[in-house]
Amino acid sequence: QVQLEESGGGLVQAGGSLRLSCTASGRTLTYSVMGWCRQALGKERDIVATISWSGGTYYADSVKGRFTISRDSAKSTVYLRMNSLKPEDTAVYYCAVGKYFSTTARDYDYWGQGTQVTVSS
Fold this sequence. Notes:
With 121 residues, the chain is mainly β. It is built from no helices and 11 strands. It has strands spanning 2-7, 10-13, 18-26, 33-39, 45-52, 57-59, 67-72, 77-82, 91-98, 110-111, 115-120. Strands 2, 4, 5, 6, 9, 10 and 11 form a 7-stranded mixed β-sheet that branches. A 4-stranded antiparallel β-sheet has the order 1-3-8-7, with no helix packed on it. Strand 7 (67-72) and strand 8 (77-82) form a beta hairpin. It is globular. The relative contact order is 0.32.
């Protein structure tokens, strides 16, 4: 079992920035990839960014150049820095862990409770 605790969502104007944090606890050594997904109202949950414990990263095309994922391995914490936010970034953002890298959200094994990010125009 892995527990994920997220923080950092909120309301921001277009062009602004937010940083999300996710701390993992439990049997974290079993899982090699952490990432962030998002789900907008009425849409599917999509991968936004992932990072492996070796440091490899992946970004969805829609966020490349604007979002940065990073980790503090000692704290089992992953961050998502979101810059130049757009109204279309509005969604519930979920932290997730998985044993293997995948660009498919449903392939990840554990999820946080989600944090709302709202970008106003």
